[in-house]
Structures are given as C-alpha cells and as structure tokens.
Design a protein that fits this description.
This protein has 181 residues and is mostly beta strands. The protein is built from no helices and 11 strands. Helices cover 0% and strands 48% of the residues.
C-alpha cells in the first residue's frame, strides 16, 4: 500500500464543544471521521483524544471508538469541503497546510445507517477532583495496535462516556494516515 500522508482533525471552537454521552452509545456518533473516497483509499487511525474545554468533569469516564459496519451516505456539510462541523480544523502533519491532500470530513452528531457498531474503550480516567481545568485534563490514546481502518464510505466514531458533571464540554481529535487500498 502506498502511503498518502498523515493528517489530524480537531474541533477547536469554544461555541461548539460537546457534552459527554451519559449512556453507552448506539448508532449516534458524537464526532465522526468520514472517508468519502469511493475506492482506493483507507484511513489507518493512529490516535484519538478528548480534552475538557469547560465545566467540571463528572465521575471519570472512558474514551470510546467505533468503525461503521457498512458504507454511509456522504454527510451534508455546513461549511467548506472538509468542515462538517463549526470550528473543525483538518491539516496535514507533513507541512502541506490545511487540509493538505485529504478529502476526509470531521463532523458531529451523525446517526448511522445499518447495524450498530461495536464501541471499543481506548482510554479511561478515574473520578475527577474539584477544580479540574483544561490545563490538567485530557486523554490521548495511541491506538495503532488496534489496526483500525476506515474503509471507503466508512466512518469512525468517537465519544466520551461519563457522568454529566457540572456542564462539562469536550473537544475531540483524531490522527490518521491515508493509504491506497
């Protein structure tokens, strides 16, 4: 497989951070990385993460990831070709600028078609203390060992499962490498 580049997507706008899910997710993805290619390219995930943007986290939590079992319809975008969600940024990690040579889409609150995917816990944390701030809270998971591939027309979902806390809002990120299939 020929490697095509390494990319990172992050949601980074204070007005668009998201609350954690408080029940195990089913077919709704808090954040999703969509592979719009019709053939020839897969996305191999390197890492995912979340960070507390505001509020106080609840009783700990777990960062979850899934991959859709069937191809999904191309999502409707709110802005631009890669920005499916306000405040989302996608860029190359090889100095090619934003969004580089990727057609990936990073967006929020998608309801999947087809069967419910299996969600995998990739990082967890114990209950938080009071006064936790963005500077001291975040999870980053190196998930290369899982060998997660997002096929053409597929999506990977990211969610943070936790108690509600005091209005916690989170940002999410994902890093991947694109390869010819």
């Amino acid at each position: 497989m020929a490697k095509r580049g390494v990319f990172h997507a992050v949601m980074g706008s204070g007005s668009t951070f998201l609350a954690p899910v408080t029940a195990y997710p089913t077919t709704t993805l808090t954040m999703a990385l969509y592979n719009p290619h019709e053939s020839g390219r897969v996305y191999k995930l390197f890492g995912v993460g979340e960070f507390l943007a505001s509020g106080t986290p609840g009783a700990g939590g777990v960062l979850l990831v899934c991959v859709t079992a069937v191809s999904q319809a191309r999502p409707t975008l709110s802005t631009g070709s890669n920005s499916g969600y306000a405040g989302t940024k996608i860029s190359s990690l090889k100095g090619a600028g934003a969004p580089g040579d990727t057609q990936a889409i990073f967006l929020s609150a998608l309801t999947l078609t087809g069967e419910q995917p299996a969600w995998v816990a990739v990082a967890s944390e114990p209950a938080a203390g009071t006064g936790l701030t963005i500077a001291t809270h975040g999870l980053a998971a190196d998930i290369r060992y899982l060998e997660i591939e997002v096929p053409q027309g597929g999506m990977t979902g990211i969610a943070y499962l936790s108690g509600a806390g005091t209005a916690p809002l989170y940002g999410f990120g994902v890093t991947w490498q694109e390869e010819d299939a």
